[in-house]
Amino acid sequence: MLQPRPAEVPVFVLCGGRGTRLGEIGARRPKPMVEVGDRPILLHILESYARAGFRRFVLCTGWRAEVIASFFLDFRAMTEDFTIDTRTGEVTFHQTGPRPDWLVTVAHTGADTMTGARIARAAARYLGDAEHFAVTYGDGLADVDLAAELAFHLAHDRIGTVLAVNPVSQFGHLELDEDEDVAGFVEKPVLGQMWASGGFFFFRRRFLDYLSTDEGCVLEGEPLRRLAAERQLRPFRHRGFWSCVDTLKDRDRVHALCESGAAPWQGPAAP
Q1: How many Cβ atoms sit within 10 Å of the Cβ of residue 94?
Q2: What is the pLDDT of residue 271?
Q3: What is the pLDDT of residue 28?
Q4: Model pTM?
Q5: Contacts of residue 187, Cβ cutoff 8 Å, sequence gap at least 6
Q6: What is the structure's pLDDT at 182?
Q7: Domain span at 98
Q8: Contact call for residues 120 and 217 (beta carbons, < 8 A)
Q9: Residue 44 pLDDT more than 60?
Q10: φ and ψ at 175, to 5 degrees?
Q11: Helix, strand or coil for residue 95?
Q12: Is 15 within a domain?
């Protein structure tokens, strides 16, 4: 069987969260739309995937979904210079760099829907006949080779792959056994030297059987715990840069990296 290329693998991005710990800058917009450098976190994430050859994105929106919808409906006006004739309304766009070749679907998945249900609802409408799909959070940045992670995922026979990182923080704990399977998944323990979930998942479509469209289905709860208990989740270890943008301190740190021109997750311009 031919293995899918990155361009054929849809990427579901969880974009429904509220930036409650980001203070004023997260008060009026979804967390993925908080700016890092000169553009929203969400664009940094899509560009990371695009550099690895991915181009199909499904944005699983929730609270203040209209902010994300408006941004992409007016994408060229938001990202390019333009001239408008105020008498006729004619607009001329001035391309100042390469335009991304993306297919972006904005999927409304409910204002208060949990992460697992967002994926289930969006996948029911937009997964199509794809056998594999990616899932990531709308607030995570990493210099991971996503094409290599996809290749790793396709090379094993488990249902899921998760990016395993070792940050100095508190996130979902991965318990790895001697066969390099994920044996357990514990949300946000005290880390110490333990490996943690960095998001950036790949799944076979069979994972949809672990999810529910019920509003309360949490990806990090029963679905991932069950997958781990059944030895169906493999870790892709990443020792490079990784950060979520969960607090104002997180945002200020990655923003400063952007402003200095030393953002590790940024590579050459996306195709």
Answers
A1: 8
A2: 41
A3: 85
A4: 0.88
A5: 172, 173, 220, 221
A6: 84
A7: 7-259
A8: yes
A9: yes
A10: -100, 115
A11: coil
A12: yes
User: Euclidean distance between the first and final Cα of the chain, in Å?
Assistant: 27
The Cα 190–Cα 168 span in angstroms is 10
- Coil, helix or strand for 133? strand
Does 264 fall in a domain? Answer: no
Write the secondary structure of 156-212 as one string of H (helix), E (strand) and C (coil). CCCCEEEEEECCCCCCCEEEECCCCCEEEEECCCCCCCCCEECCCEEEEHHHHHHCC
In whole angstroms, how far apart are CA 206 and each of 132, 159, 212? 9, 7, 13
Q: What is the pLDDT of residues 169-186, one digit of tens each?
A: 555 667 788 788 888 876
Lowest pLDDT segment from 9-13, 109-113, 127-131, 182-186 = 182-186
User: Which residues are bridge partners to 176 per DSSP?
Assistant: 182
Average pLDDT over residues 202-211: 97
Helices (H), the chain: 41-51, 65-73, 75-79, 115-126, 146-155, 222-229, 248-259
Higher pLDDT, 205 or 189: 205
What is the SS3 assignment for 14? strand
CATH code, domain with 180: 3.90.550.10
The three-state secondary structure class of 103 is strand
Number of domains present in the structure of the chain: 1
